[in-house]
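=== RUN LOG ===
request id: a7f3
mode: sequence -> structure
chains: 1
length: 398
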Amino acid sequence: MNIEFYKQSNYIRIFFMKNMKLLSVPELRERCPLKWGNNIPKNGISLGVADIDFEGPIGVIDYLKGNLKESFNFYQNQSGLKSAIYTAEKYLNNKGINCNQENIQVIDGTMMGIYISMKWASRINGDILSLGPIYDPIWRHAEDNGNKIRWLGLKEDGIDEEKLLNIIEEQKIKMITICNPVNPTGYSFREEELKFLADVIYDNELFVFSDELYEPLCFGSEHISMGSFDKIRDRSILLYGFSKAYGLAGYRSGFMHIGPDIENIKYISSQQMVSPSPISSLIINYALNEVDAKKWVTEFRKHCKNITEFAFNYFNDTGFKLQKPDSNFFVFPDLKVDDIAFTEFLLKNYGVQVVPGSTFGPDGKNHIRINCGTSEKRLEDGFERIMKALDKFNNVKK
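=== RESULT ===
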């Protein structure tokens, strides 16, 4: 398929990025095959898979070369390299999460941490309350492991406290799952909301799983972790990684803070990984300690603020309702259409890939998630195609 669209926009602005290199489409097709694979047609635009169109920090290869050891030919510590565990512990303590090294589990990508957590949750009686929309592997892994999901949709200004309390009262809930910041909306929970959740969790002896992968990209206010409330720290499972904010998706590195039942959760981890790859540990050390990685994140966070503001204004001014992001690089407009049918139509006829909102649970219905981790020019081209496709799709449906 050969698709060409050209239109001048009133929204284009220029962002200057010192430490970030935007990759060309041919480079992305070669180096980023999951996002820019053969399913994206010639002259198409991938705004779907949550990878970015920028080259990551330039120092990572030299760092890895300088720290690889022959001993890595053998299984390493089940929880990860000692240096990485120390680095993660220090990072969490600086965020106000009073943890010890025994709480840390290095993982080969955050998806592994989600699976381990939901596998453990399946051993406890009760249901899981998911605050949606939410990253779909969380609820999918929960269900696949035999957990029943109860849903509570987030309001534009956050948690509906009355409805949450009603669900807790009426259903046997064992765990609350959240993304903080939220994938797909970019919403970051406020301190008073998290304090409310902490009180509910403590009073009802619940557990909480908090995916905090995007916390380095909070640009609206400082990120606050569920684990920073001491009374529920031992009831909290927290997830961190380096695929998004650090542009290091391919290395599959992350770590968990494990509050409850450390021995059994780490046993499940050992059954999945035996021990995490030493590369995962080295990436933790690189991302959290090295100056060039920190500079890269700082610049990417500024880009996320600018690019999501551009995207929010585009759809808001066009009359579509959406949450204004204060973190990460997504927007999640409500297009008032069958999101699954529309995303298929959009890719087939206009060459743009986005993610249907229903993927993120029932509260994502009629929405689409747009990955804004690219240039404004590329994104603006995608928006114009989405508008054309939407007009055509609605006319066809009539």
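=== NOTES ===
Confidence is low (pLDDT under 50) at residues 1-14.
Residues 20 and 54 are 6 Å apart (CA to CA).
=== END ===
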